[in-house]
Specification:
Helix 2 crosses helix 3 and helix 2 packs parallel to helix 4. The protein is built from six helices and two strands; from the N terminus they run H-H-E-H-H-E-H-H. The protein has 119 residues and is mainly α. It holds the Pfam family AAA_lid_2. This is ChlI/MoxR AAA lid domain-containing protein.
């Protein structure tokens, strides 16, 4: 069992995890790409961006690091962003997939398309 104090300490530690500017830009570019996607009526919001930042920082911390890697962004983009977007009905119908499956495919496609920082 975790105490309130321990939980607050974990939250504070996650806030202190560093995101290098290129990784931060990668995250922003990924979210921005959802807003320009032709199959989406509504892309991920600024709030979704903040939630992705918080999630990747916590992911890095749980992995024993005090910095975020592009792999952290890739690992969490689908679960954090997919449910925060709305597909165009026609695109969804043509896909033959359920809404969540379709949105997961869209985010995965963006992960494959948005350039990943290397240095």
């Amino acid at each position: 069992m975790v105490t309130v104090a321990q939980l607050q300490a974990m939250i504070a530690a996650a806030r202190d995890v560093f995101i290098a500017p290129p990784v931060e830009q990668y995250l922003v570019d990924l979210v921005h790409a959802t807003r320009d996607h032709p199959d989406l009526r509504l892309g991920a919001s600024p709030r979704a961006t903040l939630h992705l930042v918080r999630a990747v920082k916590a992911h890095a911390l749980l992995d024993g690091r005090d910095f975020v890697l592009p792999d952290d962004v890739a690992a969490l983009a689908v679960p954090v962003l997919a449910h925060r977007m709305l597909p165009i009905r026609q695109s969804l119908s043509l896909s033959g997939l359920g809404e969540m499956d379709f949105l997961e495919v869209v985010v995965q496609g963006l992960l494959n398309r948005v350039p990943v920082p290397t240095a």
